[in-house]
């Protein structure tokens, strides 16, 4: 298995307890550059630094992705391999693209992620900016997805969003609590707990 582990925004003290545990348990740890290595070296000085070029040369990017996939695969096939990445592995990171390449070449490998403190939430702390109400996060592209917190009537909200072109829905209720529930698409309940998050995405995303 390959697990993408969020390392937080750049301070080793902001690694989660779970991240530290997984770094210690993994048969091999990989990181995309020296900044990420500096965050894990206390726990895994043997972490392998991989080349993920900051370039617009798509051919070179694909070549490096393939080479990285081939280096990670032997460890992920037979044990637990960890890919540590700054921030969170599901927010604007290279981890999802790496998984696509590995899945194509090595379909027997499974994947998982563990969250880290993202720059989005860390910013509010550093800048001392409390955030409330709705807000937009973008990498410069138009919004493809929407996230709604404290959703009490998820089925009705999804029906309304469908009229705006959204067709993929995931509801997580009481996340990381003992009663956690995940609902997909047509499974959305009429009512949900206060601690609920609904994710909606347009089909072209």
TrEMBL record:
Domain Tetrapyrrole methylase: 1-184
CDD domains noted in UniProt: Precorrin_2_C20_MT
UniProt key word Membrane: no
Keyword hit for Cytoplasm: no
Keyword terms of this UniProt record: Cobalamin biosynthesis
InterPro entries with a match to the protein in the record: 4pyrrol_Mease, CobI/CbiL, Uropor_MeTrfase_CS
Listed NCBIfam families: PRK05576.1-3
UniProt protein name: Precorrin-2 C(20)-methyltransferase
Origin species: Methanoculleus chikugoensis
Lineage per the UniProt record: Archaea, Methanobacteriati, Methanobacteriota, Stenosarchaea group, Methanomicrobia
């Amino acid at each position: 298995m390959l697990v993408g582990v969020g390392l937080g925004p750049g301070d080793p003290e902001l690694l989660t307890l779970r991240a530290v545990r997984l770094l210690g348990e993994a048969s091999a740890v990989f990181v995309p550059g020296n900044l990420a290595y500096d965050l894990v070296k206390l726990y895994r000085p043997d972490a392998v630094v991989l080349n993920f070029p900051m370039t617009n040369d798509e051919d070179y990017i694909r070549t490096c992705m393939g080479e990285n996939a081939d280096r990670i695969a032997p460890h992920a096939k037979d044990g637990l391999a960890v890919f540590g990445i700054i921030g969170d592995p599901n927010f604007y990171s290279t981890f999802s693209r790496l998984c696509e390449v590995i899945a194509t070449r090595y379909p027997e490998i499974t994947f998982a992620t563990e969250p880290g403190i993202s720059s989005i939430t860390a910013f509010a702390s550093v800048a001392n900016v409390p955030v409330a109400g709705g807000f937009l996060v973008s990498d410069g592209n138009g919004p493809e997805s929407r996230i709604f917190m404290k959703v009490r009537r998820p089925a009705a909200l999804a029906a309304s969003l469908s009229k705006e072109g959204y067709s993929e829905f995931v509801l997580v209720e009481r996340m990381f609590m003992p009663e956690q529930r995940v609902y997909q698409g047509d499974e959305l309940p009429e009512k949900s707990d206060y601690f609920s998050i609904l994710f909606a995405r347009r089909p072209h995303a």
